[in-house]
Amino acid sequence: MKTFDLSLYLVLDPELCSDIGMIETARAAVAGGATMVQLRDKGADTASLIETGRALKTMLAGSGALLIVNDDVNAAVAIGADGLHIGQDDIDVSTARLMIGPDMILGLSVETEALAAAINPALVDYAGAGPVFATPTKPDHKQPIGYEGLARLVALAPVPTVAIGGLKAEHVEAVLGTGAGGLAVVSAICGTADPETAATRICLDIKRFRL
Fold first, then answer.
1. Is residue 137 part of an annotated ligand binding site?
2. pLDDT in tens, 47-56
3. Residue 2 placed within a domain
4. 3-state class of 85 per DSSP?
5. Which alpha helices (DSSP H) does the chain contain, by range?
6. pLDDT tens digits for 23-68?
7. Cis status of the peptide bond prior to 131, with omega within 30 of 0
8. 92 is in an annotated binding site
9. What is the CATH number of the domain that holds 31?
10. 38 is in an annotated binding site
11. How far is the C-alpha of 17 from the C-alpha of 23, rounded, in Å?
């Protein structure tokens, strides 16, 4: 049984994090309560991802936060990451599971009710549901689904879900109210003046909702 906490899922963006870097942004966010960190760098090759990912893994050791690699299965395996996250247009789920083995966490992006319902829980551990809102950090994203669409995806998915897409601290209550297991954020932490404080604020809002 895999154990993971989707509450505050940080997706790193190399451009937004450029002032202090992805490693320091992740360190600060985890200090503020981030539970999972995804390494997403569409412009990097596998070797560069492995280098950054190994540095992240070293930094996260002992923190309790888990490291997820976006898209690049070879990098995820080489890093010894806690998980891999793939989209619908990336490597297929069965192949990804075969390559990462049974123990690594596998996340899958879903944008529609049909995709959410079609998830195979024997292969996929969690779903990234969205985009809830439009976001400039992923200009090729699908049509935003809003809170009502998110609630439908959460209800249909046979695995835990993390909401993504333009989410900020002020969205915590509405997102968690759909039954989602947490929020995946990018610009709400990356590129802020104080990533630790930004993460702390979101975590406090999550804790208040769950009281």
1. yes
2. 999 999 999 9
3. no
4. strand
5. 21-31, 46-60, 73-79, 93-100, 113-117, 146-156, 172-176, 195-210
6. 999 999 999 999 999 999 999 999 999 999 999 999 999 999 999 9
7. yes
8. no
9. 3.20.20.70
10. yes
11. 9
Q: CA-based angle 50:134:30, to the nearest 5? A: 40
The neighbouring-strand residues paired with 84 are 69, 106
Residue linked to tokens 């960190």: 37
According to the annotation, is 52 in a ligand binding site?
no
- Is 69 flagged in the annotation as binding? no
Q: Is residue 3 part of a domain?
A: no
Backbone angles phi, psi at 163, to 5 degrees: -80, 145
Number of domains the chain contains: 1
Residue 166, marked binder: yes
Domain of 83 in residue numbering reads as: 8-210
154 assigned binding-site residue: no
Q: Among residues 7, 22, 6, which one has the least CA distance to residue 189?
A: 22
Flag whether 53 is marked binding: no
| CA pair distance 25, 186, nearest whole angstrom | 11
Is residue 90 annotated as involved in ligand binding? yes
Structure tokens at 104: 């690594």
Q: Is residue 27 part of a domain?
A: yes
74 annotated to bind ligand? no
Decide if 1 is inside a domain.
no
Does this model's pTM top 0.85? My answer is: yes
Question: Please, are residues 38 and 11 in contact by the beta-carbon 8 Å criterion?
Answer: yes
